[in-house]
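Budget justification, computational time. The allocation requested in the original proposal was used primarily to generate structure tokens for proteins on the priority list. As evidence of use, we reproduce two of the resulting records. The first is shown immediately below.
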Amino acid sequence: ILGDYAATAAMDTFTASQGDRHPTDLAMLRGARLVSVSETEEGRPWAESRIKQLTGGDKISARFMRQDFFTYTPQFKLLIVGNHKPVLRNVDEAARRRFNIIPFVHKPASPDKRLEEKLKAEYPAILRWMIEGCLDWRENGLLRPESVKEATAAYFDEQDLFGQWIEECCDVGPRLVCKTAELFESWKGFAERNGEHPGSTKAFSANLCKREFIPGRTKASRHFTGICLKKREEWQDAYDR
């Protein structure tokens, strides 16, 4: 229906890899309004910085094979289809603004093998439906169904390992205080036992600040107010799971 305004891309363009992808991947998306991607891989993490770059409204640089670089502003909506949800390492507000999980739970008893053919015959009506939806969006904004809100919230909860550590290993309260080194040691063990790299103490402290815990320091050490570790017998279960 969208013709040249629609494009497809490889999943590798949006997931992390050891080497850099050739900028041709991005060059081919110039001018597209809808980019569809399929075949997600279980356990593979998102290329988060690239996704934020492509969806943030800023210009990006790209080039075709053996040609010069050029810049353009991405205009497309990214639609990713798959049975597996890639790993999201940083569950922050920037990620929450960008991701919407749309669950497809209906499985027909007998799939219609002529469905694509039938839909093609309805292209004019589908295009009109799309235009009406666009006008509704411009007038009323994007109203997400409850099923999308719930599926998206569940995805973020699954991916928020840092939040899981706070829930399982820490107590939270305005009068609680704990040394940063002790908190980080607990987080480090929790992350490693869950197959994740704990990162640096600087990144760890930044994550605590994002969650509105208050940093402080004395002559002897640094600490955070609003959080402390649970007693060992309480949080040991979190490590053993």
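The second record produced under the same allocation is shown here.
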Amino acid sequence: GVDASSADLFVNHRVILTPVEGNDPAAVELIRAMRDSVGAEVVDMTVAEHDAVLAATSHLPHVLAYTLVDALAQSDASDDIFRFAAGGFRDFTRIASSDPVMWRDIAIANKAALLDAIDTFSEHLGCLRSAVAAENADQLFDTFSRAKQARDEFSSILAQRNKQKP
């Protein structure tokens, strides 16, 4: 509500515009100007680009968290699993406490892009599974190292963005 409002809520935050054929160009520019005026970085994308980016960075992580928690909760050992779960599990699964109605609707509305993201992830998970089964230490190390480097770069981008906030 109003008590949680912030004048700098959008400062240095990206906002995606997905203008489509038939949009009034003046209306699109008005929206862009409104977002610019509150300090947002406005990025134009096609609807397909938007859907793919959000499926990979938002929808897939939610689906993974929900699926992991659901699979473990249905396990015969769920009491022990949850009793011994610690920080990593808590951090990874926090978003599984999100509104299931909203995420059901998002999954259905963005079905094609979400299925593509799930398929890509499943392919990578299958490769990782094969590496574990084969005890392929080099492949595991390479995968974990690439992921760590990518995550560290992402963290650096976030830290830089936070420095730019007023």
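A brief technical remark on that second record: Strands lie at 14-17, 41-44.
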